[in-house]
Every structure is written in structure tokens, then in C-alpha cells.
Design a protein that fits this description.
The chain is α/β, with parallel strands linked by helices and about 160 residues long. Helix content is about 45%, strand content about 10%. β1, α3 and β2 form a beta-alpha-beta unit.
Amino acid sequence: MKHVMAGLMLFICGPVLFGSPQQHPSVAPGASETAAKHLHSLLSKNAKILVIDVRTPEEYSNGRIPDAINIPIDDLPKTIQQLHIPKDTTIITVCDQGGRSSRAALELQKMGYKTTSFCRLDSWKKNGYKIKKEQPQAQPESWIRPFVNARTLRA
């Protein structure tokens, strides 16, 4: 009986104790997806968009889409309000597999942003597009203003 109980406990607790793979949330229904190819085209044309990577700073530093800014999903509503990003800004959110970024796109719609969608970083990588890596740095909130103004003012 002890062996059966020990085996059952190992079966139940094993993934936690031995580090099971991270579970990614599924894509939120109703969120609009932008294909990596389309996003790449928009960025290469300097289109009027803002790309927000909603992953953690550590994930962001391990590889991101060039020109993407990092606003972790838990900080998104507060940070977006503080930055006073115009409501007509086209925003594309990014995460690894679309779970967090699709939820972020829907959250931005609730906040009044009309044109929001999400893109999967794994799709970006599979298409062979450039990934930028850097160490996370603490930056003042004002660092985004020149980026947003420069990017969103381009036609």
C-alpha cells in the first residue's frame, strides 16, 4: 500500500518537483491575429504601428522582434494609460505562442483602442525573421514617448 501511495504522489507531484515544461495559455477567442509575414512587411515599411511584447523582461531579453517594446501583460493597463498612447494607434501585441498577446489585444480593445491584434513570436522565428537579444534594463517611463511619437507619426 505504501508503494502505491508513493507512486501516486510521484505521479501527481512529479511534474512540479521535476520541472515540467511551462504551460502556455491558449489563444483568446475573438482576438485578431496578424501573421508574422504581414508584421514584418509593416515594420519594413515603417508603418504607423506600435509593437508591444507582453512577456516578462527576462523572456524579452532572450529574443524579441526588433522595434518591439516590453510591457509585461500584468502591467499593460496601467502603463498604457500612463503613456497616453493615442487611441488611433495600431497596436500589435506579441508573446511566444499567442496566449498572452491575444488576451492583451482584447484588453486594449476594451480600453478603446480600435486596431489591435497579436502576433506569435514562434511564427516570427519560423519565418526566419531577425530576433534582437539584449539584457533587460530599468528605464524611465518617458523612454517610450520618442519611440511612440516617431513610429506613430510615420504614414
